[in-house]
Amino acid sequence: MSTILDVTQLSLTQGNKALLNNIDFTVYPGELVGIIGPNGAGKSTLLKCLSGYIFPSSGSISLQGKPLSSYSHQDRAQHLSYLPQHSEPAFSFLVKDVISYGAYSHPNQNNADELASIIAQTNIETLLDQPLNQLSGGEQQRVHFARILLQNADIMLLDEPTASLDIGHESQLMNIITAQCQQGKTALVALHNLNTALEFCDRLLLLQQGELIAFDTPEQVLTPAQLRQLYHDNIRISRHPDTSKLYLTPLRK
Ligand SMILES: Nc1ncnc2c1ncn2[C@@H]1O[C@H](COP(=O)(O)OP(=O)(O)OP(=O)(O)O)[C@@H](O)[C@H]1O
């Protein structure tokens, strides 16, 4: 199968600090890839490079076999969507207008049915006529995710899309991403909740201090030895009694 994303020898240096150091990986269509790693590991920096929002110091990023830098803005927006970790609403845009910006890259398509379905899936029916900057953090996150879904790009780059969500909405959002990937979309999602990463992701890309430490199936990446190296004795590593999957919780000392 041909790849959808090829990252080769990607490095980014700011001052004398290497934020990303010789990162190599490839992603296939339909994959749900979790990007994990401790605070400051470089997850957001990597996603910003992949989105074209910032430029690497060296290395290359190919999207569907073509250099990312060769895409026009509109072309790129049709192939790739990006949900940043933080986005402060500067103006009091209405929720329904914010979502509609998702269709900006394909203005001639009639997407009324798709829009209605996305609004229902993300549970934002009652928010549509409200100003975005008067919503809670989790509500704003769901609105931005709805905008990304409407953009309908081949690859979604999502930076901690569940960070402000309650566990029910977290599950809903991850299941929507899973369904999208089953229909052929590809997702790269930065996550801190490792149980969520274990439950939903096909592969995990583990970063630490700007280095790619591992890129493999969740159980191959999150070995007890690796977890101890990353999080020391701050976590409890067990197996879930129902699923036998690895189960990680903060440890009270
Ligand atoms: N514009 C910048 N200039 C210099 N250093 C930066 C810049 N942006 C980020 N960094 C540094 O790069 C490193 C990686 O930051 P990044 O935001 O990518 O980490 P992260 O893995 O997403 O962390 P978190 O889990 O806390 O969100 C951090 O040490 C950060 O201080």
TrEMBL record:
Which CDD domains does this entry report, sorted A to Z? ABC_Iron-Siderophores_B12_Hemin
Q: Which UniProt keywords apply?
A: ATP-binding, Nucleotide-binding, Translocase, Transport
Question: What does this protein's UniProt record list under function?
Answer: Part of the ABC transporter complex HmuTUV involved in hemin import. Responsible for energy coupling to the transport system.
Instruction: Specify the protein name.
Output: Heme ABC transporter ATP-binding protein
MF terms in GO = ATP binding
Database matches in Pfam families: ABC_tran
Organism of provenance: Photobacterium leiognathi
The taxonomy runs: Bacteria, Pseudomonadati, Pseudomonadota, Gammaproteobacteria, Vibrionales
NCBIfam families per UniProt: PRK13548.1 (NF010068)
Where is each ABC transporter domain found? Answer: 5-234
**Which PANTHER family does the UniProt record give?**
HEMIN IMPORT ATP-BINDING PROTEIN HMUV
Q: Does the keyword Repeat apply?
A: no
